[in-house]
Amino acid sequence: MVLLSCLQRCIQLLIWPVYILAYMGLWDSFYKRVFPYIMARFAPIYNQKVCKQKQELFSNLRKFAGPSGQLRLLEIGTGTGTNFQFYPPGCQLTCTDPNPNFRQFLLKSLSENPHVQLERSVVASGENLHEVPDGAVDVVVCTLVLCSVTNVSKVLKEVLRVLRLGGAFYFLEHVAADQSSWTYFWQKVCDPAWKCFGDGCSLSRETQKELEKTNFSELNLRRIHVAPRWSPTSPHIIGYAVK
Ligand SMILES: C[S@@+](CC[C@H](N)C(=O)[O-])C[C@H]1O[C@@H](n2cnc3c(N)ncnc32)[C@H](O)[C@@H]1O
Predict the structure, then answer these.
(1) Measured between alpha carbons, how far is 124 from 127 in angstroms, rounded to an integer?
(2) What residue spans define the domains of the chain?
(3) Measured by CB atoms within 10 angstroms of the end CB, which terminus of the chain is less buried, N or C?
(4) Neighbours of 138 (CB within 10 A)
(5) CB–CB of 92/73 below 8 Å?
(6) Ligand 1 centre distance from Cα of residue 76 (Å)
(7) How far apart (Å, rounded) are the C-alpha atoms in residues 166 and 142?
């Protein structure tokens, strides 16, 4: 415990200018502009690592299409639109993200993936999707988002609200490691600094517990490691939950 807080303090000392900027309220607005460029570089590298897992995960999306055969898909925290390549042809997409600075990257991804149709793009946080009516979508997707939201259970409540009965919530999220592991220790050491450079991202979120608490009728979840295994972002959960 003492070692943990000493190491946390050391890292905080190293990045003290960031804390000053954050205290002055300048860091967040600056970083919201920079973060989309970082994600545009990082997302393709991450996608290469998890390509097989994403292909497998999204392979049964069609199963949740509505009676007309159309698949209405809502993505929370769409970012640069890195998941579009995995969606089936003709799916009707609603994109949501609280950061409007992702737009140019989102449009680029749409032009590279003409098989998906953008119905709507909404600037909104996952905690408040009031622009999307109850039961309006067949599928909700979240990848690398629940680590950054302010309130996971509020987001999951919104997911349940916007999904039609029998619809599904797909997720791929990095999560807290086993609490007895060194990975968990380093997650805790890096967490305060990581929040500043990861746009609010927490390394040690217990997202699985939040999913288990939510009222889904079925939860298909697997724990996996994404290389490199020593990385604090290595432990992931992947799967889907049915309303
Ligand atoms: C690490 S990026 C992941 C982007 C994309 N989903 C992907 O897999 O590449 C995190 C995304 O979550 C978004 N985000 C942050 N807070 C959020 C919130 N409260 N609700 C919804 N999205 C949020 C960010 O703007 C960003 O687009």
Answers:
(1) 8
(2) 2-242
(3) N
(4) 23
(5) yes
(6) 7
(7) 18
Question: Which range has the worst mean pLDDT, 105-109, 175-179, 189-193?
Answer: 189-193
Tokens representing 203?
A: 């390394």
CA of 2 to the centre of ligand 1 (A): 33
Q: Report CA(78)–ligand 1 centroid distance (Å).
A: 6
Which atom of ligand 1 lies nearest, measured to the CA of 79?
Answer: 27
Q: Are 235 and 177 in contact (CB under 8 A)?
A: yes
pLDDT band at 157 (very low <50, low <70, confident <90, very high): very high
Determine whether the shortest distance from the Cβ of 79 to ligand 1 is under 6 A. yes
Closest Cα to residue 138, out of 68, 192, 223? 68
d(CA 105, CA 110): 9
Superfamily grouping for domain 2-242: Vaccinia Virus protein VP39 (3.40.50.150)
Tokens of 30: 């600056």
